[in-house]
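Table S2 (text version). Query chain:
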Amino acid sequence: QVQLVESGGGLVQAGGSLRLSCAASGRTFSRNAMGWFRQAPGKEREFVTTISWSGAITYYTGSVKGRFTISRDNAKNTVYLQMNSLKPEDTAVYYCAAKSGYVGANAIYRNLADYDSWGQGTQVTVSS
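Corresponding structure-token output:
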């Protein structure tokens, strides 16, 4: 497992941008598939995006496609989530997650149960 710490959340007006970071500790980060999930008040945690450990493959949920971009820097043990054109419905706690173990270079994962390490979350609030 890896330890994950998110940062970069905050309050932003609709149409604005934020960049979340997730710093990982552990020797296997470069071989972990990574994901971002979010949980709004009163709702279940939902998938947002994922990236393979190679960085070559990404996948987004439909509601953020074209607005959010996931990327990673394996040399810095960090994964990023660039969020543009934010909407009030993007308001949530955002969680970074890692899938350890044997992971193919271009494998991606969309289910919560696939991930074995989670950060503590960072709050993103978008005002209208």
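Notes on Table S2: The first strand starts at residue 3 and ends at 7. Residues 99 and 115 are 5 Å apart (CA to CA).
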